[in-house]
């Protein structure tokens, strides 16, 4: 692309000299005054790479012209020519006219052409950068729209799945009240177990979506740490018994400010993870400690192998599973994501640290 240069000077000889100097590489437009230059700019709304103007001209100075040109051609690179060592004009040009460089008259042809070449190169780079930023902004808006659509879709699907699921569970309950054969009873229990598992998965996904969209409802009230009820599922209790794992609770005598039911859910899920990865015949320590005058740290510690930083990044993301899906791994990798969503609603987040002979997962909550 051949770049366009606008040269402005009230002396015709200077204009002709600038044109002869630049026309071999660039398309040159000329104007004999500031007003004439503004008309040229109006007639050429397309990109003008460089504007070169004399400072001392009748009716409108070069600085005034450059300042006016910003309105119609904000991306043009501006060069000021001056035959006077007028520092005030130069300062004014830098501040209001946004000049790239000023050149004293009489100019050195080599220096002037090199300056124009660099100015054109800068114009090209800025234009490319602007294009990339526009593309990036467009892609970001598309991604944001897609993310919003995804969240709305997930909420809609969860709602639509719950409706038939409720019917399945209701009719299963009615079926169990009738006289069933042994085989029919086994089938009814399997249907109920599968439906309950599906309901749990739907609730988990909905919780993550609500946490990410800021629509998770919380009931923030003060309560004692000791009021928290740790109730892991029967599957987790069975696994803990099989591995010989004991859970020890150490609550601080503090009143925290949070949604008690949601914090209980976080702790139950963290204990589930701890049991899963703890060594056999070890202990899981759940405790609270005061870290600041009005902050309580909750931590769940299990003895076992440490976690690498790359794995920590992965397990914080939804749907990560460290087990082989083809081997029928249980769950869909939402455990820690759900905890993060709940804690996000409490202006908190999880922290995972490798401690001596084990791993500690913790978070902080305000207290009285």
Q: What is the helix content?
A: 40-55%
CATH superfamily of the largest domain: Histidine kinase-like ATPase, C-terminal domain
Q: If you average the pLDDT, what whole number results?
A: 84
Number of domains: 3
Assign the CATH architecture of the largest domain.
Answer: 2-Layer Sandwich
CATH top-level class of the largest domain: Alpha Beta
How much of the polypeptide forms β-strand, as a percent range? 15-25%
| Count of helix runs | 10
Structural shape: elongated
Give the radius of gyration: 36 Å
Q: Main β-sheet, in a few words?
A: 5 strands, parallel
Question: How is the secondary structure organized here?
Answer:
Blueprint: E1 4-8, H1 12-22, E2 27-31, H2 34-43, E3 50-54, H3 62-72, E4 77-82, H4 87-97, E5 99-104, H5 109-176, H6 182-213, E6 221-224, H7 234-243, E7 246-250, E8 255-258, H8 260-277, E9 283-292, E10 295-303, H9 309-315, H10 335-344, E11 351-355, E12 358-366
Parallel strand pairs: 1-2, 1-3, 3-4, 4-5, 7-9
Antiparallel strand pairs: 6-8, 9-10, 10-12, 11-12
Helix pairs in contact: 2-3, 3-4, 5-6, 6-10, 8-10
Notes on the structure:
It is a single chain. With 368 residues, the chain is of the alpha/beta class. It has three domains: 104 residues, Rossmann fold, CATH 3.40.50.2300; 73 residues, Helix Hairpins (Orthogonal Bundle); 146 residues, Histidine kinase-like ATPase, C-terminal domain (Heat Shock Protein 90). 51% of the residues lie in helices and 20% in strands. The protein is built from ten helices and twelve strands. The strands form three sheets. The chain has a five-stranded parallel β-sheet with strand order 2-1-3-4-5, sandwiched between helices. Strands 7-9-10-12-11 form a five-stranded mixed β-sheet. The protein has a two-stranded antiparallel ribbon with strand order 6-8. β11 and β12 form a beta hairpin. α2 runs parallel beside α3, α3 runs parallel beside α4 and α5 packs antiparallel against α6. The longest helix is centred in the middle third of the chain and has 68 residues.
């Amino acid at each position: 692309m051949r770049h366009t240069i606008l040269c402005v000077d009230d002396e015709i000889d200077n204009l002709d000299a600038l044109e002869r100097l630049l026309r071999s590489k660039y398309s040159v437009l000329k104007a004999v005054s500031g007003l004439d230059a503004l008309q040229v700019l109006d007639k050429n709304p397309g990109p003008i790479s460089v504007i070169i103007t004399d400072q001392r001209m009748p009716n409108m100075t070069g600085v005034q012209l450059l300042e006016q040109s910003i309105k119609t051609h904000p991306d043009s690179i501006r060069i000021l020519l001056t035959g006077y060592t007028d520092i005030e004009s130069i300062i004014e040009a830098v501040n209001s006219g946004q000049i790239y460089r000023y050149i004293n008259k009489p100019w050195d042809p080599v220096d002037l052409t090199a300056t124009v070449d660099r100015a054109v190169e800068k114009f090209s780079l800025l234009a490319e950068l602007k294009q990339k930023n526009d593309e990036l902004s467009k892609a970001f808006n598309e991604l944001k729209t897609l993310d919003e659509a995804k969240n709305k879709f997930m909420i809609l699907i969860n709602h639509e799945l719950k409706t038939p699921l409720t019917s399945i569970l209701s009719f299963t309950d009615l079926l169990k009240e009738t006289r069933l054969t042994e085989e029919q009873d086994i089938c009814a229990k399997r249907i109920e177990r599968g439906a309950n598992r599906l309901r749990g998965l739907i609730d988990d996904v909905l919780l993550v979506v609500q946490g990410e969209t800021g629509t998770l409802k919380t009931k923030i009230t003060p309560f004692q740490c000791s009021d928290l009820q740790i109730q892991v599922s029967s599957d987790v209790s069975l696994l803990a018994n099989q591995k010989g794992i004991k859970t020890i609770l150490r609550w601080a005598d503090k009143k925290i400010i949070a949604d008690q039911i949601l914090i209980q859910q976080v702790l139950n899920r963290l204990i589930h993870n701890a049991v899963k990865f703890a060594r056999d015949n070890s202990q899981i320590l759940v405790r609270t400690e005061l870290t600041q005058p009005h902050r309580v740290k909750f931590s769940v510690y299990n003895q076992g192998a440490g976690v690498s930083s790359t794995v920590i990044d992965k397990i914080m993301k939804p749907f990560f599973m460290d087990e082989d899906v083809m081997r029928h791994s249980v769950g869909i990798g939402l455990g820690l994501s759900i905890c993060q969503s709940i804690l996000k609603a409490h202006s908190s987040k999880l922290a995972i640290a490798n401690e001596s002979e084990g791993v500690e997962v913790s978070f902080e909550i305000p207290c009285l």
